[in-house]
Specification:
The chain is of the alpha/beta class. The chain has helices at about 10-25, 50-60, 65-70, 95-105, 120, 155-165; strands spanning about 5-10, 30, 45-50, 75-80, 110, 125-130, 135-140, 145-150. The protein has a six-stranded mixed β-sheet, with helices on both faces. Strands 6-7 form a two-stranded antiparallel ribbon.
């Protein structure tokens, strides 16, 4: 098994994933998202590609964490538009990337803070081959400040970060 797994959550994600995998087939495997839950011993980078809206909807209905099940990877990249942003207009109090980092044990999650051009995922310009590991990882070189790494928050940190998003009346 290779050290980078590439998966997708929607049709646009599938197209971009296929292209990215074609460029990096020497260090990556492309797998269906539903097969990840059986890879409890995986050590490497998982790249989940698709629209942020699709990932938000997954979180709302079945949950990206539930889809991953017993997946053992500690490094996850959500390659979608604005998965590191809170979408207050649809009632999200926490970004999907932070939420996933909070629910996965010992997991680092990278998410984007603004639009991620589908073509830059497909052609791999928002990733680079790690010099230390045999995997792809997010790169800010071509898109400065695009990626943010999220780690598990304490219960207090979670409450405080979400509290500021509530529209509470001032007293």
């Amino acid at each position: 098994m290779k050290d980078t797994l590439i998966t997708y959550v929607d049709e646009d994600g599938r197209k971009a994933a296929r292209s990215l995998w074609g460029r990096y087939a020497d260090i990556s495997d492309m797998v269906p998202i539903n097969s990840l839950k059986w890879r409890s011993n995986f050590v490497g980078m998982l790249i989940v590609i698709g629209h942020g809206r699709t990932m938000v909807d997954m979180g709302r209905y079945i949950g990206l964490d539930n889809v991953l099940g017993d997946f053992g990877g500690s490094f996850i990249v959500l390659a979608a538009c604005e998965v590191g942003m809170v979408h207050e207009s649809i009632g999200e109090l926490q970004s999907i990337a932070q939420g996933l980092a909070n629910t996965r044990k010992n997991c680092f999650v990278w998410g984007t803070v603004r639009d991620l051009p589908k073509q830059s995922v497909a052609d791999g310009t928002c990733f680079y081959k790690s010099p230390l590991f045999n995997w792809l990882q997010p790169a800010n070189d071509n898109f400065p400040g695009l990626w943010i790494r999220y780690e598990k928050q304490s219960d207090d940190e979670q409450a405080i970060s979400m509290l500021s998003k509530l529209k509470l009346p001032e007293s």
